[in-house]
Amino acid sequence: MFESLQAAKADAILGLIAEHRNDPRDNKIDLGVGVYRTPEGHTPVLDVVKKAEQILVDTQVSKTYIGTAGAADFNASMQALIFGDEAPHDRLTTIQAPGGSGSLRVAASLILRAAPDTTVWASEPTWANHIPLLGGAGLRLKSYPYYDTDRHVIRIDEMLSALRKAPAGDIVLLHACCHNPSGLDPSEDEWAAITDVVVERGLVPFIDMAYQGFAKDLEADAFAVRHMVARVPEMIVSSSCSKNFGLYRDRVGTLSLLSADEENRGIVDSQVNNVVRTIYSVPPDHGAAVVSLILNNDALRSAWLLELAEMRDRIQSMRSLLADKLSEKAPDHDFSHLRRAAGMFCFLGISAEQVAELKKDYGVYMVDSSRINVAGITEDNVSYLAEAIAATLPA
Ligand code: LMR
Q1: What is the mean pLDDT of residues 202-226?
Q2: Pairing between strand 364-365 and 29-30?
Q3: DSSP 8-state code for residue 205
Q4: CB 34 less than 6 A from any atom of ligand 1
Q5: For residue range 57-91, what is the model confidence (pLDDT) as tens digits?
Q6: Active site residues
Q7: Is the CB of 284 under 6 A from ligand 1?
Q8: How far apart (Å, rounded) are the C-alpha atoms in residues 137 and 105?
Q9: Phi first, then psi: what are they for 205, rounded to 5°?
Q10: How far does the centroid of ligand 1 lie from the alpha carbon of residue 61, in Å?
């Protein structure tokens, strides 16, 4: 049977981890997969996570199954973190999911049960795994214009007019903040305009929130979610704790579903839990238990907020530093768009050939689209990086 298979292509993002690891050069730089890095280049376990893990080791009395929805305290705390106090919590249901990807996958199965003929509209470009993940689950996908590769701005008018043509009931996949891969987020006014179109057209927003706390702060980064949840009858939100709690490999996330009324909320809740049972049965507990401890303990929560701010500030300062160095090393080229981006990512705006040259000649790794993970930049490597980039640019 397996003889009929052809080897799958390496993943566009995860494949870079091994390529970079196997590169023997000392001065290699990894700007590939979106993980936070310290100035020393490590992706640490947050101190607050270590503390919460110790509490778990000391107090956890059982590892018995926790149920398809995961832990109720985690789900309630995450729902509050994402939606704030004002949201219609009586119409919301939130389940624990194995990371943002697990949440997206469960959402896809639920959408297929509820509206098998619907189309999901994704930004062009979007996270490299959105299309294979949602498409692979069986959803039909189309794209709306989002990033202007020449001017490095959001194509907001074209985006709105594409959405105005989408049939009622279609789903619009949006990035809550730190748009992956472009780093460009709509302004509050633009979010309001997007919401107006969603409401006018009867579309269903499906918001992916993988970076809450990485752009401005936890509240500001939830603006799109909170603005929309107050205005639409139905909505889907996938969230991830991979980045903001640094719990990447522990697979922690949530899936939240907004129903038109409380009665439907109960039905949706039963269906989504049934979906979970048919895919992975129950979610992993450890990371979610850590998050719940942190969110429900004042001292741990304050410590987490400090560590989150530290990660956010370092990323932002490395972004400015690279922009400064590029204006020094490549004065004839405009990289000012780097400063407009938020979160871990932005496009350098160079070709796939130049990306390949950076990898081959300089050991600088990034996604083919020229998306860089700014967290891979350090005070020590930024000059070399800017020189390498400058060397690949046309004279
Ligand atoms: C990324 O975009 O690099 C991260 O979200 C990691 C991943 O799974 O692709």
Answers
A1: 98
A2: parallel
A3: E
A4: yes
A5: 999 999 999 999 999 999 999 999 999 999 999 99
A6: 127, 208, 243
A7: no
A8: 7
A9: -75, 140
A10: 34
What residue spans of the chain are helical by DSSP H?
15-21, 47-59, 72-83, 99-114, 130-136, 156-164, 188-201, 223-229, 262-279, 286-295, 298-329, 352-362, 382-392
- φ, ψ at 172 (rounded to 5°): -110, 115
Place 41 in a pLDDT band, splitting at 50, 70 and 90: very high
How is the chain split into domains, by residue range? 6-45+311-392, 66-296
Q: What is the CATH number of domain 66-296?
A: 3.40.640.10
* Cβ neighbours for 77, distance < 8 A, ≥ 6 positions apart: 291, 292, 295, 296
**% of the chain exceeding 90 in pLDDT:** 98
pLDDT band at 10 (very low <50, low <70, confident <90, very high): confident
How much is the average pLDDT of 240-247? 98
Mutate to test the pocket of ligand 1, among 20, 33, 372 (most ligand atoms within 8 A of CB): 33
Any atom of ligand 1 within 6 Å of the Cβ of 33: yes
Mean of the pLDDT values across residues 99-118? 98
13 lines ligand 1 (CB under 6 A): yes
What is the pTM assigned to this prediction?
Answer: 0.97
CATH H superfamily, domain 6-45+311-392: Aspartate Aminotransferase, domain 1 (3.90.1150.10)
Q: Which atom of ligand 1 is found nearest the CA of 129?
A: 9
Angle 254-15-285 from CA coordinates, rounded to 5°: 25
